[in-house]
Recover the amino acids of this structure.
């Protein structure tokens, strides 16, 4: 089955939205503008997940990341006084070292992704098209099945982690009376 | 040209939604139809709200602009378009302009998966209900940024209160939804897709609101309360009440920008009502599938759309006869009679065979959503407003424990045979 | 160029990771550093889901381990964002600043 014709346009469009959103996040002076750029980048990421035939992860991304974590960020940005901070210097003193370090990391990535061992590239092609009509059911069977669920224990530990995070956040942010 | 015609006709008679069948032309047509239908519904809601609220308060409502105020929404729309566009002085211009569009985006995108019939949806995603809950939670972002960008006290407090309220009631909504989704898995495969949920109700021959009585009913009631709070409507409308906060987060928005918020609010109301109708009230299925079953009853019920439009036309004619016989009222009388004629003609068209079968799904779904819209207006005319701390108390201390208990009880009752077998095996 | 393969997604993930690393290393405002960390986590998630799709091509439609891992990473990111913002609020209450290089109470 051939992939739909518009596939590369969607990929490059969404990738461009993500990269531009990422650049806006790290360069804006106003944290609210950064937060909104991050929201667009997260929504574009959900689109990319849909292109990778992972609709459940896309749904979780929209609900949790764009609809939960970013709301939390926006609340906190409003609680702290940012006007004074927007007039100060935005980039710290070691910015050049930071960019050189990131550049070295980028060089490492390029070196890894372009290695060819004996003429073979790193990820040879397999054109598969699985319809995603039962993606949620398969993810659920990996998480919850009695005999085949490899991630049941991790799921329970994750719920414990969330409980710890809730208690920690409440304890740290509440008023000392 | 011939290829295009073949592309268009290849979808007709298919048993999948246009998105699932991959037909871009029909998907676009459905998108436009939903958009037009939603706009008409919002305009109708505007008129209905003012008239019904007025009649509940023993007064008449708008009567001047058209016959019985029927053209009042158009006059309102014209006024909003022609108003001066004021942006407050210290406001963040970019964010101030973008915020209404975020709320509108969230409110309109949910309609991609709303099922008006077994093939009458734009697409049928595998994660339908998850998508609807997630995208409707994006409207909180729009409200928070709108309040913050206005650079003024009332909008900021209104926005923070409104978003705190919406986030709290999303939890209750999610728990009610999960307990309904668990009921879909009783017939075999559980599913999150909206069309699959209604088909599960069809296969189990029972609407989920009546299942495991009273668990389905309590879940439905919980969702009905949470959805009113989620859309910031009375009695949970403290963040936008005029006597409290001078219109809350949309205080500084005037003219066309305010109408975007208004559009988003009514669209969100229709969207969450669609979720409630799909999950508990059987979506597009006709009432009484078991008690009045059989093909004669099916045919009798399929006449109801036409009959209801004829009834509406009859009401218009009755009111035309009651209009004052003054020459100044002549145009209004003719207008009302014309409107009645249009409604009666639509009713007659709906009696025609193939149209009747195709439209009955859409009609039953829309009728159930209209009942919810009437309930929204009824609540606004009846209940006093909740104070904000009472609101948060209800959300966290009443609805959340009820939701958790409901979830556990639904799971236990749904799996009772397996649980009993397991317990017996352990005790052996 | 026009056949989207796994490598395209990996390169995009690497680019996002680099943007996040630059944000963490060069910005002074704590909230923007936290948002850059979210960018890094998203880049990692993109890698995981891209590899899950590659694995599906080899091992069949049930090889969804990458997607489950991505769900856990998102859960983790939520917990971490909540705790980090709690720390930020507690610190802001004491010192009235949100710059990372002014968090130097232990400096001698």
């Amino acid at each position: 089955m051939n992939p739909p014709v518009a596939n590369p346009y969607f990929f490059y469009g969404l990738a461009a939205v993500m990269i531009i959103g990422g650049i806006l996040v790290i360069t804006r002076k106003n944290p609210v503008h950064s937060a909104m750029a991050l929201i667009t980048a997260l929504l574009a990421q959900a689109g990319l997940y849909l292109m990778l035939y992972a609709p459940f992860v896309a749904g979780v991304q929209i609900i949790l990341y764009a609809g939960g974590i970013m709301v939390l960020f926006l609340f906190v940005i409003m609680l702290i006084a940012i006007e004074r901070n927007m007039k100060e210097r935005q980039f710290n003193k070691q910015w050049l070292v930071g960019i050189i370090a990131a550049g070295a990391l980028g060089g490492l990535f390029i070196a890894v992704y372009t290695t060819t061992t004996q003429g073979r590239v790193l990820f040879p092609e397999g054109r598969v098209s699985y319809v995603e009509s039962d993606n949620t059911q398969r993810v659920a069977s990996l998480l919850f099945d009695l005999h085949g669920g490899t991630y049941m224990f991790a799921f329970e530990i994750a719920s414990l982690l969330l409980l710890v995070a809730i208690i920690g956040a409440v304890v740290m942010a509440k008023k000392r009376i | 040209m011939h290829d295009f015609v073949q592309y268009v006709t290849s979808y007709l008679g298919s048993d999948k939604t246009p998105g699932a069948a991959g037909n871009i032309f029909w998907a676009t047509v459905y998108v436009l139809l939903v958009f037009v239908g939603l706009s008409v519904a919002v305009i109708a809601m505007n008129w209905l709200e003012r008239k019904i609220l007025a009649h509940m308060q023993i007064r008449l409502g708008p009567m001047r602009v058209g016959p019985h105020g029927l053209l009042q929404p158009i006059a309102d729309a014209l006024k909003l378009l022609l108003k001066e566009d004021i942006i407050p002085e210290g406001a963040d211009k970019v964010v101030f302009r973008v915020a209404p569009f975020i709320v509108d985006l969230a409110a309109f995108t949910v309609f991609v998966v709303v099922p008006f019939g077994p093939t009458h949806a734009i697409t049928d995603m595998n994660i339908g209900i998850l998508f609807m809950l997630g995208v409707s939670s994006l409207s909180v972002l729009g409200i928070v940024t709108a309040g913050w960008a206005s650079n003024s006290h009332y909008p900021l407090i209104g926005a923070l209160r409104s978003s705190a309220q919406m986030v709290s009631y999303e939890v209750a909504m999610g728990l009610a939804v999960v307990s309904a989704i668990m009921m879909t898995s009783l017939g075999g495969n559980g599913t999150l897709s909206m069309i699959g949920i209604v088909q599960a109700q069809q296969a189990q021959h029972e609407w989920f609101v009546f299942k495991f009585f009273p668990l389905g009913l309590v879940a439905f009631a919980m969702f009905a309360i949470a959805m009113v709070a989620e859309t910031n409507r009375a009695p949970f409308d403290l963040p936008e009440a005029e006597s409290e906060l001078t219109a809350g987060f949309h205080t500084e928005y005037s003219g066309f920008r305010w109408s975007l918020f208004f559009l988003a609010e009514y669209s969100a109301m229709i969207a969450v009502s669609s979720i409630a109708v799909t999950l508990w009230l059987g979506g597009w299925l006709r009432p009484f599938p078991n008690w009045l079953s059989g093909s004669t009853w099916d045919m009798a019920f399929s006449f109801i759309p036409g009959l209801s439009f004829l009834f509406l036309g009859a009401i218009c004619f009755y009111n035309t006869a009651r209009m004052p016989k003054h020459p100044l009222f002549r145009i209004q009388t003719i207008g009302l009679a014309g409107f009645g004629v249009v409604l009666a003609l639509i009713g007659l068209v709906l009696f025609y065979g193939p149209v009747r079968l195709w439209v009955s799904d859409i009609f039953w779904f829309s009728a159930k959503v209209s009942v919810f819209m009437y309930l929204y207006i009824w609540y606004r005319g009846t209940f006093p407003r909740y104070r904000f701390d009472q609101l948060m108390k209800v959300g966290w201390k009443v609805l959340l424990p009820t939701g958790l208990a409901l979830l556990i009880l639904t799971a236990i009752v749904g799996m009772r045979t397996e649980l009993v077998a397991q317990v017996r095996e352990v005790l052996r | 160029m026009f056949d989207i393969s796994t490598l395209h997604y990996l390169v995009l993930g690497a680019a996002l990771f680099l943007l996040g690393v630059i944000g963490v290393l060069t910005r002074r405002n704590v909230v923007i550093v936290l948002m850059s960390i979210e960018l890094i986590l998203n880049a990692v998630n993109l890698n995981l889901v891209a590899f899950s799709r590659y694995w599906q091509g080899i091992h069949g439609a049930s090889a969804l381990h990458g997607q489950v891992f991505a769900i856990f990473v998102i859960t983790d990111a939520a917990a971490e964002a909540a705790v980090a913002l709690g720390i930020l609020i507690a610190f802001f209450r004491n010192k009235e600043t949100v710059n990372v290089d002014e968090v130097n109470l232990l400096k001698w």
Q: What stands out?
A: Residues 19 and 76 of chain A are 25 Å apart (CA to CA). The mean pLDDT of chain A is 85. Chain A touches chain C through 88 residues (CB under 8 Å). The longest helix of chain A spans residues 55-79.
